[in-house]
Design brief:
With 59 residues, the protein is of the alpha+beta class. The chain has one domain. It is 34% helix and 20% strand. The chain contains 3 helices and 4 strands. It has a two-stranded antiparallel sheet. It has a two-stranded antiparallel sheet with strand order 3-4. It is elongated, with a radius of gyration of 11 Å. The protein binds zinc ion. The site of zinc ion has 8 residues, from loops.
């Protein structure tokens, strides 16, 4: 299974796609980072793959 993550463009913190998908919009968990991360920031191919296989990404 492919691991889909998003890397914060401001601080490089890596966030799992399933966490982003749960919240849709979230503040970056990076210490002191104010960047807002969105599920929509993921490349379209990654989003489509995630949504097709989302059951397998639930922990
Ligand atoms: Zn960040």
């Amino acid at each position: 299974m492919r691991i889909i993550t998003h890397t914060c463009p401001a601080c490089g913190t890596v966030v799992a796609a399933n966490e982003l998908e749960n919240k849709r919009v979230m503040k970056c968990p990076g210490l002191g980072c104010q960047e807002v991360l969105r599920f929509e920031d993921l490349p379209e191919g990654a989003r489509a793959h995630f949504l097709e296989n989302r059951n397998r990404y639930q922990i």
